[in-house]
Amino acid sequence: MYSDRIVPRFVLSLVSLAFLAGCSRSPSVLAPASPEAGKIADLFWILLLISGVIFFLVEGLLIFAVVRFRSRQQATLPKQVHGNTRLEIAWTVVPSLIVVGIFAIMFPTMSELTQQQAGALKVKVIGHQWWWEIVYPDLGITTASELHVPVGQPIEIEILSADVVHSFWVPELFGKTDTVPGRSNWTRFVASKEGVYPGQCAEFCGVQHANMGFLIIVEPREAFEDWVEEWGDAPDEPDDGPAALGEQAFLTGSCIACHTIDGTRAQGKLGPNLTHFGGRRSIAALTLDNAPENLASWLANPQSIKPGTTMRIPSLSSEVIRNLVAYLESLK
Ligand code: HEC
Ligand SMILES: [Cu+2]
Fold it and tell me: In order of start, what are the domains of the chain with their CATH numbers?
């Protein structure tokens, strides 16, 4: 009875899993867009092959034994064996050799992908609960959640943490690298195709761990250089209207305790740098798309959108929110 029902259910859940996997647009490690991710994908196939061979060998022997020695009339018991030193040594040594072999295959890739590299564009990524700070030390740029890089250029990322262990991961571009408080880890890659690659924190780091995404925007060199150039001059001061009122509200409100906007007296460091916020695609580490109505709901109640976020603010009137939205969206 029990097994009658459990088997169809198991099959059903496998089938629906296959369907769900088919319709999600999650990035796949098996669709690499950099030579580094390509090496990781190759390792996956090698491991799959090794474990596939072991699986079919073990299951084959098992099925053989089950069929060959199944209960029959006038069955003779197979020969009973107790303690066979040679066999026991063999099944200890062979798996150990397989594991050592796998390590030997993996190690060169592992050390190669974490080496520092001359001539690379340097980026620092700092994990915070629950957003990513992105710094280009040589370009004087500090932003959040969206990392722009030119296609074909070696990128070297130093990965740090402001609080707990997170893990920085873009399946199509490079492997997972933990952020460890007080320590620098490194990863490097060369993106070979333009595109927008989603990344995700891959190590549970608190209640909003799932809302800790980011994007790597791989663009042609000219587009990247234009983007860098925008950072050369601070965003234009709004002359009048809601944006000017919003700027005033921002600079006289609590916002400046946590946020920096270059060229203004807002120099807070606890939250994301908002200098070119209007040019960004998302709000609060990919939790919302960057659109005026989403920004208004974020400012109306960040705790209802991302419960636990360190952005705690007194409630704002809808007029102040409207002005702040006009100001922040004008920061391109
Ligand atoms: C106590 C610190 C603090 C204060 C005060 C604060 N914020 Fe924030 N803010 C944060 C943090 C931290 C985040 C990132 C939240 C997350 O993604 O988890 C954030 C995110 C944001 C974002 C989205 C940024 C991004 O990178 O997506 C905007 C816009 C923003 N805040 C505007 C404001 C405004 C306007 C005020 C003033 C009314 C304000 N903040 C006050 C800490 C603060
Ligand atoms: Cu996390």
Answer: 121-230 (2.60.40.420), 241-330 (2.60.40.420)
